[in-house]
Specification:
This protein is of the alpha+beta class and about 100 residues long. Helix content is about 25%, strand content about 25%. The chain has helices at about 40-45, 45-50, 75-80, 85-95; strands at about 10-15, 20-25, 30-35, 55, 60-65, 70. The strands form two sheets. It has a three-stranded antiparallel β-sheet with strand order 1-2-3. A three-stranded antiparallel β-sheet has the order 4-5-6. The N and C termini lie far apart (about 60 Å).
Length: about 100
Amino acid sequence: MTISTLDKIVRIERIRVLKDALVVDFDDGQSVSRPFVLYPRLARGTANERKTYRLIASGEGVHWPLLDEDLSAEGLLAGGPSMEGEPSFRRWLKARKVKPAH
């Protein structure tokens, strides 16, 4: 017996950057809200850094060049936190030239 599944790749259509969260709209009609606290680089970024992003791989992900952050559509749908390790985040934080006020 052979089982076949058709997995559709869900793509990001639009991102809205709010004060403390992202709202992500997908091409299948789903929308999710994810708080910045799940993504430390976004949480530490300025409003301008958060608003400067581009969709990558035809909407399979999103990249914030000023924060050197990448998130996948799959990860955003799953709702889990950033997978970045603490040592990597600390190095990034230490190297930042901009120290945003919270």
